[in-house]
Design a protein that fits this description.
alpha/beta, 5 helices, three-stranded antiparallel beta sheet
């Protein structure tokens, strides 16, 4: 998978990152029948993000993406295209994260998200918006924490820009 970006705002050295555990994750730009994009508004922290999350145990990427989309946006999705990977060196967590990113379409009816207690506490809200609005919301995000500001928003903005001519 083509690497789209390396995020390293804390200037982690290659030597340091060798000792970090690796967390693999999946993310998607999910389109509905009206070409609206699923976003999650993390209202208590002031930013927006795309659906996705960590691959659990021996899970393969696409089943992990299905599970994450079912949990976070209440939808079954079909992957239409592989977009690329984004690597984050997160010194604050002593972690190297690799996100495998996809373009997907909703299959069947939209359901309700099943947020975790942590997501509920973060003020997660699911919204469906046009591509220009999704990009605008990302660009106008005012994340109140380092994770949102320095990692999540740049990662998901890069992913949105990577599909600009495909939507």
């Amino acid at each position: 998978m083509k690497q789209l970006l390396l995020i390293n705002p804390e200037n982690v050295t290659e030597e340091e990152v060798k000792n970090y555990p690796v967390r693999e994750a999946v993310r998607a730009i999910v389109l509905d029948a009206d070409n609206k994009i699923a976003l999650l508004h993390v209202s208590n922290k002031g930013y927006y993000k795309l659906p996705g999350g960590g691959i659990e145990g021996t899970e393969d990427r696409l089943p992990a993406l299905q599970r994450e989309c079912q949990e976070e946006i209440g939808c079954v999705v079909e992957v239409s295209e592989e977009i690329g990977s984004i690597i984050e060196y997160r010194k604050i967590f002593g972690l190297k994260q690799i996100s495998y990113c996809y373009l997907a379409k909703v299959q069947g009816p939209k359901g309700a998200p099943n947020f975790t207690e942590e997501e509920i506490a973060g003020g997660f809200e699911q919204i469906w918006v046009s591509y220009p609005d999704a990009l605008r919301f990302m660009n106008e995000s005012k994340a109140s924490d380092i994770e949102g500001r320095d990692y999540i928003v740049p990662r998901d903005t890069t992913l949105l820009k990577a599909v600009e001519n495909k939507i």
